[in-house]
Amino acid sequence: MSGPVWVNGSEGGHLDPADRGLAYGDGLFETLRVEKGRAVLGDLHFSRLRDSAAALGLALDVAALQQDFLRFLQACPARCVAKIIVTRGVSGRGYLPDPAAVPTVIFSAHPLTEIPEAQDGIEAAVCTLQLGLQPLLAGHKHLNRLEQVLLRRELEALGKREALVCASDGQVVEGVFSNVFLVRDGVLYTPLIDQAGVRGVMRAAILAHAAAQGIPTQESRLTVDAFRDADEVFFCNSVNGIWPVSGLSGRHWTQWPLTRRLQAFWQEQL
Amino acid sequence: MSGPVWVNGSEGGHLDPADRGLAYGDGLFETLRVEKGRAVLGDLHFSRLRDSAAALGLALDVAALQQDFLRFLQACPARCVAKIIVTRGVSGRGYLPDPAAVPTVIFSAHPLTEIPEAQDGIEAAVCTLQLGLQPLLAGHKHLNRLEQVLLRRELEALGKREALVCASDGQVVEGVFSNVFLVRDGVLYTPLIDQAGVRGVMRAAILAHAAAQGIPTQESRLTVDAFRDADEVFFCNSVNGIWPVSGLSGRHWTQWPLTRRLQAFWQEQL
To answer: Which pTM does this prediction carry?
Structure first.
């Protein structure tokens, strides 16, 4: 780990081995791009964190966390990736949360490793491993990420930068570490995230920006074929921005007019 | 936490906040009952740990871990619950495992809190929350346990000691913190754990013991109705042993001839 690490507001802190974040993945995280000392799309990150904490019944004071995080950013490189982990805190053995447990908050800073050439199109694959369906957890960026670990290993074996990931119902959900969109006849489509996957902050920003620009958007069930047949396809996340797809399952693209407009919007955030 | 805690063989150790066990739940655990200073069904626990580590691609030296654990037990109360957590270790940000990462091993000891009256039958409920289906992770006692946290909260709200948990296909998988069996016409049935759930050590011990005793066993798809219509129903795990079910969805039981034989087998292990 390259930058500072704070545990509950103190630098260089350690984690209690009895933390429920470790025991059960009982917590959430956010990964934020930091530019010029400030968090890109910070409000969206904190609002997702607030919503997800409420959904999991985690008694988190997000306003206080945000204040601490601003202090933390002053100790970080002006350009980096900051990660926030929030857990349900330390408690005894057993799945039942202790209502008296105080959430653990960890901030860490990491180098931003950009892949500039990916801005001009990547070859994408389709993963064979599928996500399970769990509406209770869908959308939240929680700490139960073994599926993503296995998918990331498959992606490495496939030798591609990103890949479409389907759920066990055969519908596309997202990328391995991104959300995914397609453009068809001027409409911007992205998978509905209600059974699996993460409702990414960049996905939310794009949906809101497109709506404000009068670009029709739709969250829906989408197959791999719908992506292969699309006019444009791109991956997005709040660290890497937007990666247009230049190839997928034998289909090739060389122009991405709407994707390019959205990339310009991303550049304005930096 | 009441007893000693060892991290990588050292007492009182702390966990690195960059551990993948915290970041992604990228690891496994075992919960062992300790009686007279030794782990009950220890061989089965370590063999499951070996199998699950191999399935997740975790480079774990189980023999060395077992040696360390024997030393740890000497520092524990002769009667307690010992927990082993194994993670993929510390690495940088990102889902991709670092092949050079060394697994983190945590031992902790906890009080054994028995519920003696449960040996004579418990009222059971049926949870409304359902498990997602994920054959890649089914069977393993991994650290992605948010579903169990939510289920344990539901169980608390239901005011029952244990409950049947179904997967999203409607089939019964297990209890909230146990496996579950039914007896029908002399045959011992337990849900097949291939899509969801944990292949419990006590479940394995019961299946092996029954087979050795000439009791027919079957792992199969079982509905809630199959449990309600059974001659006997019981929950089991390697800490609490066997809890016969005295009531479920309006059905009542007062005698458990086969369950009682299996409870005697459990007592022999202590």
So the answer is: 0.96
